[in-house]
């Protein structure tokens, strides 16, 4: 497996794509006056790019909606059908895939949001990625390894020349090594992999409320393609080279959001929460720069994937909500997740555990006191009131 390094992604994988290189795509085009830039070539004989989305929770469905709306406007460059992998479930006696394809709503995970008709729910993973050239990974992070294993089981499942992006928030820790899901996907599936993250509460995005996101891309070609797939008037995409910074911003802010929820549960005020956000942003940034040396400080201070995502999650996210409930009731996160999230998954608790295990293995826990406090309150019975003592 790949580990933290200055290289955002594998040179071997990128060498395969050099012939497709075009000018750097690391600028957001001025969409008000200029036409969309031409896309790099598709590896398919049809010449079209084809988007597949793996994951159909609230965020998977919201991203699939945006992608389907965008590709429908560029049918000379994209196959108009976007397939979305739905882990089959019965909803009121009917299969979820059938409900989505008939009603054009994901009643289970994103109710009341109308989905475009060219977004098709598909229960078999192999059918979703068949002929896909642009693959979006957006399952809860607990399930990524299973998805990768399933994709690897049948050689040839992934189209040669396909590219990936991950919108999953979390990190991969093995002993003293830490890596991003983008590098995990790249190394396991031999696809270059970008990372999409930002201040993006799924329902608000799906309702078309204006927001921004950041996509960290290993090359300008990836940046151009993913910008075309996702940029919209209410979902402004900025592309940067810092895949690791974008990935770590999304993962680590979930630990800080647990702390913010604990502050709310303790009924402390806005000053305390602001202090937690400041300390949290500082630990997120320093952790990333220490263990991913090529990452950029500006990703945290200037990008949606940094400060903006931290703010929205600490005020409106599920991690915040569940942590508040944990402090108020004393119940475990497992119990609260089941009770409050209706089948959705918390990401911050697993990330707090993984980061703590990594820092312990590196003998560096004490350098990140807020991360340590969150872990100890969540998993070791430390009283929540200890959160702000001695920070
Ligand atoms: N919901 C949000 O507002 C945002 C979520 N994200 C990130 O996107 C990722 C996915 O989150 P959501 O779409 O919210 O998912 P979710 O939390 O709504 O989880 C439901 C999804 O998990 C799947 N699932 C449940 N058990 C499974 C299993 N055993 N194997 C495979 N899949 C299983 C379900 O089929 C469903 O697609 C997470 O890493 C999250 O942090 C990022 C930005 C916003
Ligand atoms: O990542 C998110 C918003 O950008 C969603 O955060 P939660 O998982 O805490 O809801």
TrEMBL record:
Q: Which InterPro entries match?
A: 6-PGluconate_DH-like_C_sf, 6PGD_dom2, G3P_DH_NAD-dep, G3P_DH_NAD-dep_C, G3P_DH_NAD-dep_euk, G3P_DH_NAD-dep_N, NAD(P)-bd_dom_sf
Q: Which residues form the Glycerol-3-phosphate dehydrogenase NAD-dependent C-terminal domain?
A: 242-388
What catalytic activity does the UniProt entry give for this protein? Answer: sn-glycerol 3-phosphate + NAD(+) = dihydroxyacetone phosphate + NADH + H(+)
Q: Where is the active site?
A: 253
User: What SUPFAM superfamilies does the entry give?
Assistant: 6-phosphogluconate dehydrogenase C-terminal domain-like, NAD(P)-binding Rossmann-fold domains
Keyword Disulfide bond assigned to the entry: answer is no
Which family would the database say this protein is a member of?
A: Belongs to the NAD-dependent glycerol-3-phosphate dehydrogenase family.
Q: What is the protein's name according to its record?
A: Glycerol-3-phosphate dehydrogenase [NAD(+)]
Per the UniProt record, the source organism is Apiotrichum porosum
* Lineage, opening ranks: Eukaryota, Fungi, Dikarya, Basidiomycota, Agaricomycotina
């Amino acid at each position: 497996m790949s580990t933290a390094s200055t290289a955002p992604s594998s040179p071997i994988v990128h060498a395969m794509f050099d012939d497709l290189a075009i000018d750097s795509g690391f600028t957001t085009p001025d969409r008000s006056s200029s036409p969309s830039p031409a896309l790099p070539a598709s590896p398919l004989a049809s010449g079209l790019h084809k988007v597949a989305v793996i994951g159909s929770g609230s965020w998977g469905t919201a991203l699939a909606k945006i992608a389907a709306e965008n590709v429908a406007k560029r049918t000379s460059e994209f196959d108009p059908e976007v397939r979305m992998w739905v882990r089959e479930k019965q909803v009121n006696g009917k299969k979820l895939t059938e409900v989505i394809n008939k009603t054009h709503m994901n009643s289970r995970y994103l109710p009341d949001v109308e989905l475009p008709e060219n977004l098709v729910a598909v229960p078999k993973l192999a059918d979703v990625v068949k002929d896909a050239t642009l693959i979006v990974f957006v399952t809860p992070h607990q399930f990524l390894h299973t998805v990768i294993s399933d994709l690897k089981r049948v050689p040839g499942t992934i189209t040669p020349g396909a590219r990936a992006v991950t919108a999953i928030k979390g990190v991969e820790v093995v002993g003293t090594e830490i890596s991003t899901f983008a590098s995990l996907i790249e190394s396991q599936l031999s696809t270059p992999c970008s990372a999409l993250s930002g201040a993006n509460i799924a329902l608000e995005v799906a309702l078309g409320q204006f927001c921004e996101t950041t996509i960290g891309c290993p090359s300008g070609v990836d940046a151009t393609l993913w910008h075309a797939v996702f940029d919209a008037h209410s979902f402004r995409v900025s592309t940067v080279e810092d895949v690791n910074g974008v990935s770590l911003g999304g993962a680590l802010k979930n630990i800080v959001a647990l702390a913010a929820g604990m502050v709310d549960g303790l009924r402390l005020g806005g000053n305390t929460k602001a202090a937690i956000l400041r300390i949290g942003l500082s630990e997120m940034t320093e952790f990333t720069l220490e263990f991913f040396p090529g990452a950029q400080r500006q990703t945290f201070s200037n990008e949606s994937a940094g400060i903006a995502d931290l703010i929205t999650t600490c005020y409106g996210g599920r991690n915040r909500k569940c942590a508040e409930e944990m402090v108020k009731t004393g119940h475990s996160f497992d119990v609260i997740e089941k009770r409050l999230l209706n089948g959705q998954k918390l990401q911050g608790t697993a990330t707090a555990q993984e980061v703590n295990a990594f820092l312990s293995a590196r003998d560096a826990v004490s350098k990140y006191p807020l991360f340590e406090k969150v872990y100890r309150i969540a998993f070791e019975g430390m009283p929540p009131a200890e959160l702000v003592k001695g920070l």
